[in-house]
Amino acid sequence: MAALVQPTVAHAQASVLLKSQQANAVVESVDREARELLLREGNGHLLTIEYGSAVKDVPHLHEGDTLKIQFVETLGAQLAPPGSPLPESTLTTARGFVHGHPRGIIAAFNRERATIKTIDLASSTISFTTEGDESLHIAALRTKAMQDFLKTLKVGDVVDITRAESITYIVTNKTVPQPAPAAPQLAAPAGDIMAPAAPAPAAQ
Asked: Max Cα separation, the chain?
């Protein structure tokens, strides 16, 4: 008897890239109490990066360090399945090495649930309220992916919105020696049995 396969339910969704930017910068100052970095980009512009107490698993920076930075920002939206739990915002940090240079990653995922109040397809505009906030928000959707997503919605739909922002930086003026790869271990071919050596004959 053939097993019954339950069909999966497809939920409308869209994701767009809002920003992707690379820059070289020098650390001007580090305020460890306020948890702020002041950077000077190659064009002379100053940039302040604020990081909260949750950001721990990243390399320590000092004045004069030179960095290669990449900023990425995305926006995603999907129809919330009925009865699904509220989305939670999260913060992820990591550190590692790129050719021996210390590397840090900070990624923030800001999530909220919205209820659609009005839809204007002609202007690609919607209004919505968010969970716990009854004030009306209005957004004009500019990208084709979001405009196509808008056409799948109706007033009263509940949508989960995720705005993701990540910063990746490589400390180019520091190099940490990396451990040498372990030597390969010799092993008997799979399936072979190693027989014990025969004892040497006793001396006559």
From this structure: 106
